[in-house]
Specification:
By secondary structure, this protein is mainly alpha-helical. It has helices spanning 5-12, 16-25, 42-63, and strands at residues 2-4, 31-32, 37-40. It is rod-shaped.
């Protein structure tokens, strides 16, 4: 589904000039329909899905217990 720059700015909670700047830099894929840029919103859904996966991996990593170091010597 294609959205206008204003709709994408609202969706991402960013300003329209920033979205246009990112489009011109090529960081956001967009199509110019003769009057305005339209942006496929699916590219952001994939990005958000990947972010969620990374967050889950980080949470799992934080929950892992710290392994005991075999080189630690009892000094008593």
């Amino acid at each position: 589904m294609y959205f206008t720059v204003k709709e994408v700015a609202d969706y991402l909670s960013m300003s329209e000039p920033i979205i246009l700047h990112l489009v011109h830099e090529g960081k956001i894929r967009a199509v110019h329909d003769g009057e305005q840029f339209v942006i496929n919103i699916e590219q952001f859904n994939d990005h958000f899905d990947q972010l969620e996966k990374v967050k889950q991996l980080i949470d799992e990593w934080k929950q892992e217990p710290i392994p005991e170091d075999p080189d630690v010597k009892d000094e008593d």
